Amino acid sequence: MGDIRKTYDIDYKRKAVAMFLEEGHGYKTVVKALDINDKMVRRWVTHYEKEGIEGLKKKRGTTTWTKERQAEKAH
Q1: What is d(CA 16, CA 39) in angstroms, rounded to the nearest whole number?
Q2: Which residues neighbour 15 within 8 Å (Cβ) at sequence distance 6 or greater?
Q3: What are phi and psi of 47, to 5 degrees?
Q4: What phi and psi, each to the nearest 5 degrees, are found at residue 3?
Q5: d(Cα 8, Cα 20) in Å, to the nearest integer?
Q6: How many other CB atoms sit within 10 Å of the CB of residue 43?
Q7: What is the pTM assigned to this prediction?
Q8: SS (H, E, C) the chain
Q9: Per-residue pLDDT of the chain (75 residues; tens, 9 = 90+)
């Protein structure tokens, strides 16, 4: 069986991003405080910096590649 993947709501992700960007905490501090993986925090910060709050919305199961391919096929 596959691993069970935990999901986090947008408020939790925003809290992690705020701790890093606004409060100036390092990744290690955020990871310890929220008991999450450092790769997740880095990913959330990157998404937030590129897309704002929209970048923190659920993305699992959606990719830009498939959306772009579908748009190409429609034309």
Answers
A1: 12
A2: 34
A3: -60, -40
A4: -70, 145
A5: 17
A6: 15
A7: 0.72
A8: CCCCCCCCCHHHHHHHHHHHHCCCCCHHHHHHHHCCCHHHHHHHHHHHHHHHHHHHCCCCCCCHHHHHHHHHHHC
A9: 567 778 899 999 999 999 999 999 999 999 999 999 999 999 999 999 999 999 998 766 555 556 666 667 666
